[in-house]
Every structure is written in C-alpha cells, then in structure tokens.
Amino acid sequence: MRNRLDIWKTYKLYINGKFPRTESGRYSKWTSPDKSVIINVCRGSRKDFRNAIVAARKSFDGWSNLSAFNRGQILYRIGEMLEGRRDQFINELMIQGSTNKEAEQELKQSIDRLIYYAGWTDKFQQIFSRVNPVSMPYFNFTVPEATGIVAVIAPENSSLLGLISVVAPAIAGGNVCVVLASSSKPLCSITWAEVLHSSDVPAGVVNIITGIKNELLKHFSSHMDVNAVVYCGDKMKEIRTIEKMSSLNVKRAVIYQNTDWNPDTSQGPYYILDTQEIKTTWHPIGI
Amino acid sequence: MSKKTRKLSFDTDWKFSPALENTEYIDIKKRYGLFINGKFIPSKGKKFFDTINPANEDKIAEITDANSSDVSLAVQSARSAYEKVWSKMNPSERGKYIFRIARLIQERAREFAVIESLDGGKPIRESKQVDIPLASAHFFYYAGWADKLNYAFPGRSAHSLGVAGQIIPWNFPLLMAAWKIAPALATGNTVVLKPAETTPLTALKLAEIIQEADVPPGVVNIVTGGGATGRAIVKHPDIDKIAFTGSTEVGKYIMDVIAGSGKKYTLELGGKAANIIFEDAAINQAVEGIVDSIFFNQGHVCCAGSRLYVQESIAQEVIRKLKDRMETLVIGNPLDKNTDIGAINSKMQLEKICSYVDLGKSEGGAIHQSSCSLPEKGYWYPPTLFTDVSQSHRVVQEEIFGPVLAVQTFRTVDEVISKANNTPYGLSGGVWTEKGSKLFQVSKEIRAGVIWANSFNKFDPGSPFGGYKESGMGREGGVEGLYSYVGLD
Questions:
Q1: What are B412-424's pLDDT values in tens digits?
Q2: Are residue B208 and residue B281 in the same domain, yes or no?
Q3: Do B164 and B138 fall within a single domain?
C-alpha cells in the first residue's frame, strides 16, 4: 500500500474575516529551525494593510457598541476554541522551535490569558470610571472608551502568547486591531486567525498580516486612520520610527519594551487602559 | 416651521456706568528675571521682551527672554531639588506645601485677577470668577492627593518621573500653570515651566507665592521666553516628561522631536468642538449656552464650541435669538466689571482671526457681527457668526481661536453625529436636549474627551480634561491627571 501524500497548509493573511493571499503576490520563504518545514509566507504589503484598516474601521462601531458582557462571551469563546486545538498549536510552536514543554506552557498560558481578559470586559470600566465631586451643581462622571483602531506590532519571540497578550486587552476594551505578526515565527499567528474565525469575532475586528517588519513598520505607524499603535520589541530604531510617525495624527504610541509575556504580572486592566480614551460628561442638576 | 415665540427682551433704559477695577495697589515690577532655584535671577543672555496690555497696547513690564543655558540652569536646579529634597520628602509634607500655595493664591486672588486681565485682556469678571479661584482650587485638590497616591492606582504603586518640562498657553495663564504644576508636585516631580510669551505675569507672581510658601528652592522653576525657550525645554536631555498645552501643530512637532528619547509626554492641543442643539432643547438656555461656548474668553478657548449645529426645525428661532443676544454683549475694557468680551490677546492673534473671517467670506459664508463699537486702541474683535457654511469650509474645519462661530443645520441624529465627528479634533462637545435617553446616546457617540450636556465650558479640578484624536493625549484634572506624572510598578 502506498503512503498517503500529506496535504500542506497554505498560510495566508486574515483581513475582514477572510483569508486572502497578499495582493502584492509576493512571498517570503520560511524555514523551520530544524529545516523540516519550508513554507511560503505571504509578504504583506502597504495595500494589504490599508485594506485591513478599511475593514477595521467598518467593524469598530459594531464591536465597541456591543455589550461588554457580549464581548466577554466572545473572548471566552476564543479561549474555548484554542483549547480545542491544543495539538495543532503545540505542533506548530514546536515547528517554530519550542520544546514540547515550552509549547505546552505557552499554549496553556495563552488560553488562560484569553479567559482572564474575557472576565475583564465588563469590569475594567468599574475600576477606571468615577463620579467626580465638582464644586458646581453638576453631575459629572468619567468613563473609559475604546480609542478606535489599534495597529499592533506583535512580539517577535512570543508568537502566540505575546500576540494574545496584546490583542486581547485591546479588543476586550472595544478596540479593533490590525496586527503585524512575528516574522520569524509566523505560523501560529495565522492559525490563531482560524480560531478567531470560528469564535463569533465579527469580521474586521482582528486582522492579521504577515510580512517584513522593515517594510511595514512605517505604514503601521503613519496611517492617518490609526488611533493607537502598540509596539512590542526593543529595537531603538524601530521605537523611534513608531514614535516619530505617530506625530502625524497624534497617535497613542504604546511601547512594550523587553516584556516577558509569560508571568501573570504581564497582564492586567492597565493593559486595557493603554488603548482607552477617557471621556468626562457634565450635566446640570436643578429643577 | 419655527414656533411662534417671543423675542428675548434685553431692552432697558438703564445704561451701564463704568465700573472699573482699581489697579493702584497692584505690584508689578518694571523688569522680571527668571525664577530659578528659588530666586529671581538675570539671564546670561541679557535679552528682554515687553509684555503689553492688549486693551491699550501699553507696555506693562520687561520680561527676560531665557536662552538655552538659562533653561539648562533651571533643569539642573530642578534635578538637584528632585534628587536631594522633593522625591525624598514625606508625601504629607509635600502636600502641605501645595496646600500653602492654594491658600496664598486665595489671599491674593484679587491682585492676581487684575493682573491676569491687564496682561491677557480677559474680562475681570472671568478672571475673578473663573481663572483665579479655579487655579487655587486646583492646587488645593492635588495637595490632598500627595499622600494618598496608593489609593489612586488599584493593584499598582506609583513612582514619580523626575523633572517635568511644562509649556503653557496664553488663554488661561495662571490656571494652566496650576493645571501643570499642582499634579506634578503632588506626585513628587519637580518642574521647569515656561509661561506664554504674551502672558507671563501671573506665572511670575506665582513664583513670588512659591517663595513665600517656602517651597524648597528648585522644586518650581519658571523661565520666560518665546518659541526658542520652549524648544530648549523640549530638547533638553535631562527632562523626563514634557507637558504641553497649545496648538496641534506644535504638539506634533514635540512628538516628532522627542521620538525615541524615552521622555514621557502629555499634550492638550487644539479643538473645533460641535455644539449640538436639538429641537427638544430648552431654547433660551441653549442660546445662553452658545454664548458661553464661543464668546467666553473672546473665544480663546481650545474647547470652544466653535461649530454650532442646530436642528432645522428650530434653526430660524435659535439664530434670531442668538443674534439678539450677541447685540447685548458688552465689549470693552477688560477691567470693567460689566464687560462680557475683552481684548484679543495679541496683535498676531487678531490678525489670524481677521484672516479667517476674510476666508469665510471669500468661501461664500454669510457673516453676521454684533454692531457694538470697538475701542480705538488695543486689539478687539466683535462677536461674529457665519451661516451658509458647510463641512468643507475652512472656518468649519480649522481652529480660529476667536469669537467666531460657524453655524450649520441638521435633520437627523445620525447626520449630526457624523458631522460632529468629521474633524481631526476631539476635545469637547455640547449636546442640548431635554430628552435624557437622546442625551446619553449622543454624548456617547461624540468622539471627544469632555461632553457638556445642557451646559458648556465648565471646569473643575476634580474633572478630567483632555482630548481624543488630534486634540492631544493624557488628562489634566481628577484622578486621571495623576497618571500624567507617574510611572506604575
């Protein structure tokens, strides 16, 4: 009996709830550290990024106006779906160079982090909202609100846990994201998109692009319809580019430098607050 | 369409007699040095500029133009005070110094109010009732936070940043100094503050109070000057945090210059706020609100409601009543207690306003101005509104920073929300309706940091202020104002 021939997976982009190839038609050859796997990764372009921004902007109203409870349900669902595909992710993390133990640990922590933020969606507002005792007869209250589109430069070395650690707080807070995945470990970021796709996350809320950081960094930080840019990494030249380009439309530049995403101290409502705006409303009191 | 309503009656046979504030006992020196390390000292550069009274163009005093070595000296003194004294001080003692500043401002409130109106042109009624009491209240509010910071950041602990470089505008000179200095000191930082070129006097008087209060030398340094002095602060390598209030253009420049430096920053920038009047609003109150929104402080307000949106069914009535009300506004000597609208802050600002109004006319807008007479000397501009303008007009899109209102109409809630948000700015917004559910809906959908519902231009130290989008980042006031001056562990 002949051996069955494997079906290889095509790794594509995730934009607007679909899995297109890059419009550029370009690719980068990616070889696993042990040379056993070679794939063609989409080399995403500026146009792919701009398409993702259009999709993200369209999805923002719906996602940010969803009830906080409902957003929590959807984040929890992402955790459920990830749990159900443990073997696939452990396999991919190992192809990317993790040991079995490391892969197991990263996956467990990734699922737990999703569940953690699922629980925050309807609580961080209660931590960071206030009623302010102003000196005039006014009712005055302050609440956090999603800032809008968050462009995320995901961590290079923590391709699943790191990615989830920055995307989960952003979407938990009602933002929508366009993510540049780790270029040295691109596999599980795209596979995570399949998890999102089967978790009732509306199209456009999370968009994931693979490509070359040097090419895309300036587009991620200069686009005029991006409200915040989250950068995970420690390259001073990249941080400078991000901060400089952010000046074009006063983007919120959030820099996570040298963060180890593994411990529980690398999570918390302050990560949600990093991509929130603060709104204060006044109303007179009287008859 | 419009309901039959009676015209607002402001007619009276009574005429206002002059009611001038006495300036005799106000103590202003002929020349001011820089306030560095607890003393007024001369600049190494020996350059000066005049600060003038915009209501009569008279010179008030000579002000030192600080150069970059003066700024360096100020930063050194702030650094040394930070490391040796202020960051090590028991927080409750730190708070007591700030309480002292608040009390001393209260004691000298009248003097400060008069100087504020002399130097900046704002009506004495506003200096007395708004600027000075709020400045004092701001110090009082943050003084109390100094030893309670552990309660402000649940689950985390806060540490101070170091030396803060602070640059403030000319529209609320003392109040902006208070907004910057009070939270910075309460959280354990020391500061180098640059007041605006045209309105340095109350900041220098505040320096006197800081001396009187025995605040340790170097904790607060005040350097006067123009753009070059500001640039020296922004670029100084030993400053840990920049806090800026001013134009979006300069805010973007600051972000660009300090990119990659590791400096933290908060920016409070321009605005072009929508003030939305629905047909179910209390119309007479709304008309007063429109006046507050655009003519308060001659419209020199970053959060001014400079775009008015009136629902079509009431537009005729609202505009007629607004025009009637504009006729009654008293324009003149800022030191007169009856004055509603004072002098434009500077010649440069007056020219900017004039050029925008010319632009509005040339783009086809219909202009209406109060028929008031303007004094001959000084810088003045009458209350002005444009109708027949649309979203693409520059007087609708760009910040004028003067008493110039652009009026548009709308039919539906969705339409007005999309128009209100169609701007790169997002500082503030106004909503007028007697229907609570609509008010909450619209307040939520306006992308701006401060929403005044059935009100406009209200401020309080406990109420966070600051913008979305290109109106800046970070908040001043309230608990949120503390975040701007701490790092969290």
A1: 999 999 999 999 9
A2: no
A3: yes
Neighboring chain A residues of B156 at a CB cutoff of 8 Å: 268, 270
The tokens for B114 are: 């008069």
In a domain, B340, yes or no: yes
Q: What is the largest CA-CA distance in chain A?
A: 89
Domains and CATH numbers, chain A: 27-261+269-284 (3.40.605.10)
B464-473 confidence digits (pLDDT tens): 999 999 999 9
In B337-485, the DSSP E strands lie at: 366-369, 384-387, 404-410, 428-432, 450-453, 472-473
CA distance A138 to A132: 9
Residue A6, SS3? Answer: coil
The whole-angstrom separation of Cα A233 and Cα A172 is 22
Flag whether pLDDT at A249 surpasses 90.
yes
Per-residue pLDDT tens over the stretch A154-205: 999 999 999 999 999 999 999 999 999 999 999 999 999 999 999 999 999 9
Same-domain check for residues B282 and B377: yes
Q: Structural domain tally of chain B?
A: 2
In a domain, B137, yes or no: yes
Q: Tell me, yes or no, if A234 comes closer than 8 A to chain B by beta carbon.
A: no
Single out the residue of B352, B439, B436, B447 nearest to residue B400, CA to CA.
Answer: B352
Tokens representing B37 are: 């390390």
Going across the sheet that includes A228-232, the strands are A206-209, A176-180, A149-153, A228-232, A252-256
- B439 part of contact set with chain A, CB < 8 Å: yes
Please give the Cα distance from B250 to B168 (Å, whole number): 12
DSSP state of A107: H
Q: Using CB atoms within 10 A of its CB, is residue B458 exposed (0-12), middle (13-18) or buried (19+)?
A: middle
A149 to chain B: nearest residue by CA? B469
| pLDDT tens-digit series, residues B327-339 | 999 999 999 999 9
Decide if B351 is inside a domain: yes
Question: Which of A127, A142, A244 is closest, CB to CB, to B259?
Answer: A244
CA angle B394, B400, B401 (to 5 degrees): 165
Partner residue opposite A280 with nearest CB, options B439, B455, B464:
B464
Burial of B421 (0-12, 13-18, 19+ CB in 10 A): middle
Between strands A276-284 and A138-146, the pairing is antiparallel
pLDDT tens-digit readout, B341-391: 999 999 999 999 999 999 999 999 999 999 999 999 999 999 999 999 999
Which residues of B are designated catalytic?
268, 302
Q: At residue B57, what are phi and psi to the nearest 5 degrees? A: 65, 15
Task: Note down the domain range covering B171.
Answer: 31-269+468-488
Residue B239 and residue B351 share a domain: no
Provide the residue type at B427 as one letter. L
Confidence bin at B127 (pLDDT 50/70/90): very high
Question: Are residues B265 and B285 part of one domain?
Answer: no
For residues B460 and B283, give the distance between their C-alpha atoms in angstroms, rounded to a whole number. Answer: 26
Alpha carbon A100 to chain centroid distance? 25
Residues in chain B: 489
Q: Are residues B43 and B165 in the same domain?
A: yes
Q: Please tell me whether residues B278 and B249 are part of one structural domain.
A: no
Question: Could you tell me if residue B78 is inside a domain?
Answer: yes
pTM of the model: 0.96
Q: What is the pLDDT of residue B2?
A: 47
Question: Tokens in use for B125?
Answer: 């009624």
pLDDT at B459: 98
How far is Cα B39 from Cα B46, in angstroms, rounded to an integer?
A: 17
Does residue B163 surpass a pLDDT of 60? yes
Measure the CA–CA gap between A218 and A181, rounded to whole angstroms: 15
Residue B47's domain is classified under what CATH number? 3.40.605.10
Backbone torsion region of residue A186, taken as left when φ is above 0, otherwise alpha when ψ lies between -120 and 50, otherwise beta: alpha
Are B454 and A246 within 8 A, CB to CB?
A: no
